[in-house]
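User: I'm putting together notes for a lab meeting next week and I want to include a structural view of one of the chains we've been expressing. I don't have a solved structure, so I'd like a prediction I can at least talk through. The sequence is below, exactly as it appears in our construct file.
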Amino acid sequence: MISLRALLAERVTQAFEQVGLAGAPPVIQLAAKPEFGDYQANGVMGAAKRLGENPRAVAQRVVEALDLSDIASDVSIAGPGFINVTFAPTFLAARLAKDISLSVSAPKRVVVDYSSPNLAKEMHVGHLRSTIIGDAVARVLEALGHTVIRQNHVGDWGTQFGMLLCYVEETGAGDNASPLADLEDFYRAAKKRFDEDADFAERARQRVVELQGGEAEARLQWQRFIDISLAHCQAVYDRLGVKLDREDVHAESAYNDELDNTLTLLQEAGVLTESDGAQCVFLDEFKGKDGTPLPVIVQKSDGGYLYATTDLAAVRYRQDTLKADRVLVFTDTRQALHFKQVFAVARAAGFADESISLEHMPFGAMLGADGKPFKTRSGGVIRLAALLDEAVERASALVLAKNPEITAAEQSSIAEAVGIGAIKYADLSKNRTSDYVFDWDQMLSFDGNTAPYLQYAYARIRSLFRRSEAKGLVASDQSQLDAPSERLLALALLRFPEVVEQVGADASPHHLCGYLFELAQRFTSFYEACPVLTADTPEQASSRLALCARTANTLASGLDLLGIDVIERM
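Assistant: Thanks for the context. Below is the predicted structure for the 570-residue chain, given as structure tokens.
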């Protein structure tokens, strides 16, 4: 079903063309205030300026050509040429009675590169944003009908693995899994040996050479370590409800055999330059503050390759093998220049043609109350598994305080959904590109724009239906929308597809979070103004139950797109 915004844009565009304003597409936006109608069409003023005419006179011609008799109850002109449109309640009610489907006119093959932890250590809070933002965007794109290819570009190659392999051999962990049970401690101990023992460090570097050269024992122990590391990651993904599994892993090492060829292709494209023994690409668009060109180094003077080389190989793989139309890479903002350079080099070398969109999706940092990166009180990195444990523990206490009569099994189930949901929503509700402060009290609050608030709103509606069944009341096929709050709720419900489309376009889930919060608020206003179970007539009660049902379904659908569970009772 076409969204309200798209429907209105189609009609207004036709009116623009009829009055000779072709080439000046209107901008359709939500009205800022109720007195301005539901939606506002802009674009007349720019067209009028080009024509040298009065904007309101041009707007009047558009309104006269605009046929909205079947959908609008009022069309008016405001200010210097804004066209305000108010939809008719009967139109909204009829539209609401239909299933609201999510779709796009031109589905694409979209690669979503997210999470990508370093397998040398356990996942920590620094991996949270990429993991849950990427997962939410992938869910949204799939719901819209795109073919989504998840890519978990884990770090499983490099010097740290030589260090770990040496330590595995030194400790005998190659024959005993127990030392690897705690990856973080094992990594820390290996790093200490690497930093303090020059002989150990040299052996570690040699092990990297042997590993990359395919030495059998090194590869065997490396694969064993990778398997254990990925098992740790999968446990976190499963608990977070993130749709990533082993099949989605396309690791850094997967491109190892293509690195030499990548260098050859850069040479053949005429973009490769030697600088101080290193192989570099210099592009005019990248210069330092002093105006000197900034190099994109693809091979070090010692013959080693870098992240840029691997990422260039990944671009080739995603265009040539995966046949992607669009690639979204979710990493923090510190890597913005890196990906801007990599994508520019890929274009210059012909690795990516105009058929593929390469998009880096940066995100800000998670901060502590002190405004610095979120860490333990002692300054250490917080393991993601431990953070989730604490979230569920805190949520469990809140759930029990809210409902002391709840059973232990229910308490455990609800606490898991509330705790995990709270952490995810607190992140997703913030603008992706902004830093945000991690605050337990705020994210677990049952008031405000939080997951617990939305989960509780859903549970309240489900409770309402359990009580309506006891009264023998059922939802009707269509709501009447007689009261202003009924109409406003219906209008909010019908905006769901356009909000989801917006998230799919700009990969910013906070738009969906803001919408769901507004929807829950609209429902509260409706519920306070319009009695449901004590309505004047059974027909009115059934009409309002239909609005309640659509609200519950939309809240559940929206939260599911964010990867957050709903709860039947709280």
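A couple of points you could mention at the meeting. The first helix runs from residue 4 to 18. The first strand starts at residue 27 and ends at 30.

User: Perfect, that's what I needed.
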